[in-house]
Amino acid sequence: MIELLGQDDDSEAFIGTAQELLNGLLQDRVAEDVYVVKIDNWFSARWLRFSGKTLGAVGWRKPRLTLPPFVPSRVVHETHYEALGDLRYKMRRPRWSVQRYQLSVDNLTRYVDEFHDRAAFFWYSGNSEDNGRGCLMAYHPAPGGYTSWYAEILLGDPPKIGRFRGTSRQALARYLSVGQTKTAQGESVLSGA
Hints:
By secondary structure, this protein is an alpha+beta fold. 19% of the residues lie in helices and 32% in strands. The protein contains 5 helices and 9 strands. It has helices at residues 12-28, 104-107, 112-115, 128-131, 169-175; strands spanning 33-39, 52-54, 58-60, 75-85, 88-92, 119-125, 133-142, 145-154, 160-165.
């Protein structure tokens, strides 16, 4: 199991729900390596499959998946995990940095499958306590290549899945233990929203 690192500005409910989504996905998909990046604040679904900018202003999404070009100063930390088998992972020193300073045009050619074709990548937001929400974005191996999705988690009692893109509510329910993950009050985090 992979544990997400939380800080004082993070909601425990968000970190717990995001961690369940991440680990639920890893049980469903095989990944040799897992890279987890915490971003300093909430980010929108527009980051999903975003490759970078051309001509200084035009946003670009390419059919072939690239790493999203978050500015490295927004990165709180990056962690790398290596699969040990039986859905167990061990933290390792990163082989390379997921987010790095470079020219925008270079972001357009940071193809996920060229770095590692069996790695899963996750980005999650910080400052969820103050924002009242958090988000998780995943790029992971799937039959025929990579797939990607984004999910927003709205804080409340209980937390709820807000906007999502690249996936379905049913898939998110499966990642959250087949929709049976309950809060202390016994309500599903997928209800409402």
